[in-house]
Design goal:
The structure is a single chain. With about 525 residues, the protein is mostly helical. The chain is built from 20 helices and no strands. Helix 4 packs parallel to helix 12, helix 8 packs across helix 12 and helix 18 packs antiparallel against helix 19.
Length: about 525
């Protein structure tokens, strides 16, 4: 792009940041002193508003940039992410949404601790929630670095590094000043912008091929260099048995992980009733379903119009496929139309990243303040306000996410989110389901379930090809790879469920029938819910 066009792009790109900071500043003038206000916005959002906010929270950089990029590079196999992310919401709708809204108050640990000894359960669940959130944040940081480096016309490490630092600083400002109310409105605005941008690009791609989807697919296959194999399963996950098991592992993580994501669970506390929570999910499924169908068109459109080689040359993992597609659809590099469309898409993608990191940071800082701090602080001293602790925690989590984002900047963002989903499905989902549905579940079972899924998931990732042993690893110069799969879900998810069962059957604790009955009635009817 020319200097003038880059200036235009940067002005459009900066507009959303300005709008979101105005929203945050306006909200910060309202009283944010109570935990209820800071964590849930006083539960004043309607099902439609919360549905748009959930969609805004869920349609992350992994969805917009990563999935389309993977489809552009590996075709059919990249669609697994689109299908997995969408199907996961059926688990949320039928098993989690209403029950979590009725049983909890602010965090996942509230649901589990309702019938267990609070301290060990809150420490375990809080630790797990922070681990999942940080992994998810890293993916958003990587997406931001790739996007802004492309926007500025450079792919140097310094540009990406400063972008990651800038995103981290913005997310801390959003959460510290605005809390849930500002975060929710940022997510709603972002969801509208993202859907509008995605619809526009999808229509332009289909118009380029005169509405002939068959022609679009065959053109993508021809330019891919793989022929019809580009449109069939197996290009990425069918080479050998290890790849096939990786396929199964990733599918399990995507389908089961959503119900264990802390920032998604926290959204159910922002509506007044369980019925509103369920209606929120219905709204979210409609919005998210339409979006993921369009990412498939964008992925194959990038393969057909840009070509996998050009996408890979811009970013090895395909994270810049959609911005490059927008540039081409608008008229190409050097044209005003191409630059404006590119800048709009870049601004929308950046809005996506900012909104998601704000939601994740709020959820993880809530876990630190409401679960970890409240459980670990020494008695006798003057306790600090939960909200004050949450604001400090947001800063600490931001620093950790920035550091890891700098380390992982060359990985595909959809792939990174797949790892976060695997940890969520391994550590959070088993304890959540056992707490809601198993009458005999005990405190030991809850603690073992969390750590029995969390520790294996993290250790297997560290020992996988993601970290070492291959040219695409985080540390390509060393090799301590012992686990062959890139996603640990196939092993760590069953281990989480097994550990919860084993901890319960070996526990000498007698399950509290009265508290279980109370939790069951509350989860099903909403009686006594906050």
């Amino acid at each position: 792009m020319t200097t003038d066009h880059r200036t235009t792009a940067l002005l459009l790109f900066s507009a959303f940041v300005a709008v979101t900071l105005i929203i945050t500043t306006w909200v910060s003038r309202h009283r944010q002193g109570s935990a209820e206000e800071f964590y849930t916005g006083n539960r004043l959002f309607s099902p439609m508003e919360n549905g748009f906010a959930i969609a805004g929270d869920y349609m992350s950089a992994a969805s917009f940039l990563g999935i389309s990029g993977l489809i552009a590079l590996v075709g059919y196999d990249g669609m697994l992410y689109s299908v997995g992310f969408l199907v996961a919401w059926l688990v949320v709708l039928f098993l989690v949404a209403e029950l979590v809204r009725n049983c909890g108050r602010f965090t996942l640990a509230d649901v589990v601790a309702a019938r267990m000894r609070e301290r060990p359960v809150r420490i375990a669940a809080g630790t797990s929630s922070v681990a999942v959130s940080v992994l998810y944040l890293v993916a958003q940081m990587v997406g931001a670095g790739s996007l802004v480096a492309l926007l500025l016309g450079g792919t140097g490490e310094a540009v990406q590094a400063w972008t990651v630092v800038g995103v981290g600083a913005l997310m801390v400002i959003y959460v510290s000043l605005g809390g849930m109310r500002a975060t929710t409105w940022i997510q709603i605005v972002k969801a509208v912008l993202l859907l509008g941008g995605t619809i526009t690009l999808t229509v332009l791609v289909l118009l380029r091929f005169h509405g002939d989807v068959n022609r679009l697919l065959h053109t993508a296959a021809e330019r891919s260099g793989h022929g019809d194999a580009f449109l069939a399963p197996g290009l990425a996950y069918g080479g050998d048995w290890t790849a096939r098991f990786d396929f199964i592992s990733l599918g399990l993580a995507l389908v089961l992980g959503t119900a264990g994501l802390p920032h998604i669970l926290s959204r159910f506390y922002t509506v007044p009733t369980a019925r509103a929570a369920r209606r929120s999910v219905v709204w979210a499924i409609g919005l998210i379903g339409g979006f993921y169908l369009m990412t498939i068109v964008l992925g194959f459109g990038a393969a057909a119009l840009i070509g996998p080689d050009a996408v890979r040359a811009s970013h090895a993992s395909g994270n810049t496929a959609v911005p490059l597609l927008a540039l081409d659809l608008g008229g190409g590099a050097g044209t005003t139309g191409g630059t404006v469309l590119f800048a709009v898409v870049a601004a929308v993608a950046f809005a996506t990243i900012l909104a998601v990191v704000a939601g994740i940071t709020l959820a993880s800082s809530a876990s630190v303040a409401h679960d970890l701090y409240a459980s670990l602080r020494r008695s006798g001293g003057k306790p600090r306000s939960e909200v004050a602790v949450a604001r400090v925690a947001a800063v600490g989590i931001g620093i950790v996410a920035i550091a890891l984002g700098l380390l992982a900047r060359d990985l595909n963002v959809a792939f990174l989110v797949g790892l976060a989903f695997a940890v969520a499905a391994s550590a959070n989902l088993p304890v959540l389901l056992y707490s809601l549905f198993w009458r005999g579940f005990t405190t030991r079972g809850a603690v073992w379930s969390v750590y029995g899924g969390l520790i294996p998931a993290v250790v297997l990732v560290l020992l996988s090809p993601v970290v070492s042993g291959s040219p695409d690893s985080l540390f390509p110069g060393v090799d301590f790879q012992l686990f062959p799969l890139q996603n640990p879900g196939l092993v760590s998810i069953p281990l989480g469920f097994l550990a919860g069962w084993l901890g319960t059957v070996t526990s000498t604790e007698v399950p509290d029938e009265a508290r279980h009955a109370e939790t069951e009635v509350r989860s099903l009817t909403g009686a006594g819910a906050a």
